[in-house]
Design a protein that fits this description.
The complex is a heterodimer of chains A (about 750) and B (about 280).
Chain A: E1 28-29, E2 32-40, E3 44-50, E4 56-62, H1 64-67, H2 72-85, E5 94-98, E6 105-109, H3 116-123, H4 128-147, E7 160-163, E8 166-169, H5 198-201, H6 210-226, H7 236-245, H8 255-264, H9 275-281, H10 296-308, H11 333-348, H12 350-359, E9 381-387, H13 394-412, E10 421-427, H14 432-443, E11 448-452, H15 457-470, E12 474-476, E13 496-498, H16 503-514, E14 523-528, H17 532-548, E15 554-558, H18 564-576, E16 581-585, H19 588-600, E17 607-609, H20 616-622, E18 630-633, H21 645-655, H22 663-682, H23 692-698, E19 701-703, E20 706-708, E21 722-727, E22 730-736
Parallel strand pairs in A: 9-10, 9-11, 11-12, 12-13, 14-15, 14-16, 16-17, 17-18
Antiparallel strand pairs in A: 1-2, 2-3, 3-4, 4-6, 5-6, 7-8, 18-21, 19-20, 21-22
Chain B: H1 2-23, H2 75-85, H3 89-92, E1 97-103, E2 110-112, E3 118-120, E4 127-137, E5 146-155, H4 158-174, E6 178-181, E7 184-195, E8 206-216, E9 222-232, E10 235-242, H5 258-277
Antiparallel strand pairs in B: 1-4, 2-3, 4-5, 5-10, 6-7, 7-8, 8-9, 9-10
The chains are: A alpha/beta (about 750), B alpha+beta (about 280).
């Protein structure tokens, strides 16, 4: 191909040029209803599709004959897997795929904006600040691609789409053969030769790695800043020759970008900076605050494109998210689009309003009659909930969802509210390996300001990088794993806020509570490895706490999922060694074994356990053997909190039942977050993610369930462990665990 | 492989440090513990599921398919396997050489006594074979003698090996200070387990690290002590480093830490064990 100027990728003509489906096309693929064709080539077809939730997607379908080529499916599968690991707000996420279908397909989120190529062709070079922001975002996206073990290999103006809140990199590493270059794949991948690295131009397959993408990024930035590719245009072979042998023409690249671009264009791949380094060097600016990252004419193009999408067929009122119905304003297609383009409309004022008004007649689809008037331009700000609503911890997750829902509804019901909030609930099913995928619904939604969740530690570990990358505060009332707030390297936590003690603190509190029973001298502490990360942290805390009291416990460690017989044996040995109390650092399954074994063995001492066991399953399964156990939980019983009366009444009214454990704390932290957003709005700003974590961390908040303040790491400041005793098959609240140990006056010498 | 190793190592250290910070324990930063090569305090065969709970997302299962026909069933088979797997000086790094004696006695099985002293014990019936190979870096250029060892223990069943991992974790909890032998002690021990998929463990069904300080009457000052142990099916492998003057455990900008060779030796043994046990294609 010998293009004179970079052309828009033929696979993605502008949405206005959406082609109708052909009679031979299917009407749906998997869960995607197909709306039209975005492009076609020898390898397959790209459709515009829509999910049941109303979200648009680009669905690429590979022709069966292509798919039957040797290794194609295995490679496709591998690359889809890898692409799913790419998590960046600046990379378009893979939302679905089936490598095993007769015609393998893959879907990615659809971005309506024009490509960088189209924008520069239509409006000329971008100003320096836009180029810097572009470079920062694309570098971040590439860093994520590289971190997932992929090489994009086709970074070019046609593969960078411009959205209101920043650019999006598309097409990363998908179904591209090993060794295949943009030149050899003439059908689907029509690269623009001016954006290939020397090692790609020479098809030195072995040498093509992440630095090739960095070279392309250098070309991209030069192009964005000058409107010209740095190695010129013209015949492909001449272009290739210049790429390999000549210095780039960087005339017109702003001074502040020159060094960086030149380094990216080093002939030697090893001499180029990494994508992550580029991200750091361009870090002083970042997009995200509305549309001002781009010049007004480009923004207008984006707004028009977004608006035109309203004319697409078959648009119903649907819900977003995979979970349950959102609160307050039902999320219609309209809201979805507003979300994408609202800020742009605000920014361009009258012109875009006219676009919206003109669309009114075509848009009777959600049947509210508001098509008569121009749609008030407004952004849908949203509070997210990421919770286990159907997995092992659904008892806790459902309570949290209710607490959050109540908080958002109460806010929306206020007459003086400065804005309206949506609620977007995502069920992670407690499934850590797939949680990152579920969480993308939240992390790729620019309207989401903060998220309550997750319910479990494992999901927290899985999704945290995506929230960090997106800059969305994640506020938990149940995930106590210490490394969710603690960071290994130099980057401090600025994402995760924990309104409960971490497991180590909880273990310490538990041991302090145990020291209130003055006769304890030799507690037996059992570490159950079923959920090892939880148990070692609680055990560590317990060890430290007893140490503070001058008490030396007797420790045992038991492999994961050990059975009742193993517990009888180990507990028998512990009793023989003289323990006078038992502390179970483990999960419900094994606590039930332990409770029964202790009863059978006639052990008379007190029994303690922690958060992982706190729930109805333990009392149901252990039955009489659970009686008398002390269970330390990170949440209080609303019935014991005078300040929770109004919350409890509202919960009853809304849901017909008293709040379950964890609902009150969830209500509190969501209300706390809303208060902070209100304060932002009052101070003249818009509600925004930026600065939200830091503001929340610094404040002291008193809610229905008590007070919350946080330390510099984002952990709950102090206390927060509540002791319950199992009595008659129910949890009876005893009180807060003490903050200091009660030291036995006469310590045994035994250690 | 190398990448995975580094991750394993970093994650182990990260998590251990995390625990130290959060519990306010003093003495973070220096390390390690027990006579090189060791048995365990208890091994009663109890059936248990494999430790499959994996809080971390990434891989879902270890890429290892054992061939039941290749699993050692007799002491002789187990000893042959252990000798084939155990890491000699070459598996550590250049500069490591054999110590004399090089291999442990077939009946060597130290146990941690009630007084937190390591004593001579009897190999339990659930252990088919255990071999320890001793290596060192001789004293050079102002550096002391760096003593290391690698141990392979072949259990009758996977469950037995699982219980050995648990009892190793118990040792540091119950005896943070241990006497290895006259003139040698380890203090301030902390231990941490990482089942597959957790804490960066991508190489074994289960892994643990124990760290503390090493004190040798013949050497001035406190040195680090580091014990890594991993389980693959019915086999456990372990590497231990007793620090010496002039060495550091972790690598930094100016020098390479001993942990690199230690992980290398550990992972080499895991790889050899896989080769010995896996279905041959």
């Amino acid at each position: 191909m010998s293009t004179a100027t970079p052309q828009p990728d033929p696979r993605r003509p502008e949405p206005g040029a959406l082609q109708p489906l052909l009679p031979s096309d299917p009407s749906a693929i998997a869960g995607y209803r197909l709306l039209g064709r975005l492009g076609a080539g020898g390898m397959g077809v790209v459709y515009l599709g829509r999910t049941a939730a109303g979200e648009l997607a680009a669905v690429k379908v590979t022709h069966a004959d292509q798919a039957d080529q040797p290794d194609f499916r295995a490679r496709f599968r591998r690359e889809v897997e890898a692409a799913r690991r790419v998590s960046s707000p600046w990379a378009v996420p893979v939302t679905g795929a089936d490598p095993d279908a007769p015609e393998p397909w893959m879907a990615t989120a659809f971005v309506a904006g024009p490509s960088l190529g189209e924008a520069v062709a239509a409006h000329g070079p971008l100003p320096e600040r836009s180029v810097r922001l572009l470079g920062w975002s694309v570098a971040r996206a590439l860093a994520a691609v590289h971190a997932a073990g992929l090489v994009h290999r086709d970074v070019k103006p046609g593969n960078v789409l411009l959205a209101v809140d920043g650019p999006r990199l598309i097409d990363f590493g998908i179904a591209r053969a090993t060794g295949e270059t943009a030149l050899t794949a003439t059908d689907m991948v029509v690269g623009t030769p001016g954006f290939l690295a020397p090692e790609q131009a020479e098809a030195r397959t072995d040498a093509i790695g992440p630095p090739a993408d960095v070279f392309a990024l250098g070309c991209l930035l030069a192009y964005a800043a000058t409107g010209r590719p740095p190695f010129g245009t013209g015949a492909v072979d001449a272009l290739m020759y210049r790429t390999v042998h000549d210095e780039p023409d960087l005339t017109g690249v702003p001074e502040g970008l020159l060094d960086l671009v030149r380094e990216c264009l080093a002939k030697d791949p090893a001499a180029r900076p990494t994508a992550a380094e580029i991200g750091v060097r361009l870090v002083e600016d970042r997009p995200g605050d509305g549309a001002e990252w781009l010049p007004a004419p480009v923004v207008r193009t984006i707004a028009e494109r977004s608006a035109r999408m309203l004319a697409l067929p078959e648009i119903d009122a649907t819900e977003a998210g995979t979970g349950t119905a959102p609160a307050a304003p039902p999320k219609s297609r309209r809201n979805f689009l507003l979300l994408a383009s609202g800020a742009a409309v605000l920014a361009v004022g009258g012109g875009a309003a006219a676009v919206w008004a003109g669309l009114g007649d075509d848009d009777g689809t959600d049947g509210k009659g508001d098509g008569k008037k121009p749609v008030p331009p407004r952004t849908q700000w949203t509070i997210g909930v990421l919770a286990d609503l159907s997995g092992p911890a659904k008892e806790i997750g459902l309570a949290q969802e209710r607490g959050a829902r109540l908080a958002v509804e109460q806010f929306n019901a206020r007459k003086d509210k400065p804005f309206t909030l949506g609620l977007k609930v995502v069920d992670d099913r407690g499934d850590a390996p797939r949680a990152l995928e579920s969480a993308k619904t939240l992390t790729t939604d620019p309207g989401v300001l903060a998220v309550l969740g997750p319910t479990t530690d494992a999901v927290g570990q899985a999704v945290l990088p995506a929230f960090e990358e997106a800059g969305i505060p994640l506020i938990t009332v149940s995930a106590g794993y210490n490394l969710l707030t603690l960071r290994a390297g130099s980057t401090p936590n600025e994402t995760f806020l924990r309104a409960i003690p971490n497991h180590i603190s909880a273990g310490t509190h538990l041991s302090f509570a145990a020291t209130l029973l003055p006769e304890i001298r030799r507690p037996g502490v059992l570490e159950d490895r079923t959920e090892d990360h939880y148990s070692w942290q609680v055990t560590g805390g317990v060890r430290f706490g007893f140490g503070q009291a001058g008490i030396a416990p007797h420790f045992r460690v038991v492999p994961a999922h050990a059975d009742a017989r193993a517990y009888r044996r180990v507990l028998g040995e512990m009793i023989d060694s003289g323990i006078d109390a038992y502390v179970h650092c483990g999960v419900t399954e094994t606590a039930v074994h332990a409770a029964r074994a202790l009863t059978e063995l006639g052990f008379a001492g007190p029994r303690f356990t922690g958060q992982a066991v706190f729930g109805q399953d333990f009392v149901k399964q252990a039955g009489a053997a659970a009686e008398g156990w002390f269970v330390c939980a990170p949440v209080a019983d609303p019935a014991t909190q005078k300040t929770a009366a109004a919350f409890t009444a509202a919960h009853r009214k809304r849901f017909g039942t008293a709040p379950a454990y964890y609902a009150g704390e969830s209500y509190d932290v969501v209300t706390m977050t809303i208060e902070q957003l209100k304060a932002q709005a009052k101070a003249g700003g818009k509600p925004a993610r930026k600065g939200l974590w830091a503001a929340l961390r610094k404040q002291k908040y008193t809610g229905a369930m008590g007070g919350y303040h946080f330390n510099e790491f984002g952990d709950l400041g102090m206390g927060g462990t509540f002791v319950f005793a199992v009595q008659n098959g129910a949890y009876k609240p005893i009180g807060s665990a003490p903050l200091l140990p009660n030291k036995p006056e006469k310590n045994d010498k035994k250690a | 492989m190398a990448y995975g190793d580094r991750r394993l190592l970093r994650a182990c250290c990260t998590v251990l440090v995390g625990g130290l910070i959060a519990t306010g324990c003093a003495g973070a930063g220096d390390d390690q513990r027990k006579p090189e090569g060791k048995g365990s305090t208890s091994t009663t065969p109890v059936p248990t599921g494999a430790s499959t709970t994996a809080p971390a997302p990434t891989p879902t299962a270890l890429d290892f398919t054992p061939d039941p026909k290749r699993a050692p069933k007799t002491e002789a088979e187990a000893r042959r396997l252990a000798l084939a797997v155990v890491a000699g000086p070459d598996a550590w790094a250049p500069g490591y050489v054999k110590r004399t004696p090089y291999l442990s006695d077939p009946d060597y099985w130290p146990v941690l006594g009630a007084n937190c002293s390591w004593e001579t014990g009897t190999r339990p019936a659930s252990v088919l074979a255990s071999v320890t190979a001793y290596s060192e870096v001789p004293a050079t250029g102002g550096k002391g003698v760096l003593r290391v060892a690698a141990t392979v223990t072949v259990h009758r069943t996977e469950s037995d090996a699982d219980w050995e991992m648990a009892s190793t974790l118990e040792e540091a909890l119950n005896c943070p200070d241990q006497k290895l032998r006259d003139g040698e002690r380890v203090t301030g021990l902390m231990s941490l387990g990482n089942p597959f998929g957790v804490g960066g463990n991508a190489t074994a069904h289960d892994a643990l690290r124990e760290g503390g300080s090493y004190l040798n009457d013949a050497v001035k000052g406190k040195q680090f002590y580091s014990w890594y142990q991993s389980r693959l099916g019915q086999i456990t492998v372990a590497t231990v480093v007793k620090g010496a003057p002039g060495y550091q455990e972790m690598s930094d900008a100016t020098s390479i830490g001993t942990s690199q060779a230690q992980v290398q030796a550990l992972v080499t043994m895991l790889q050899r064990a896989e080769d010995q046990l896996e279905v041959q294609s």
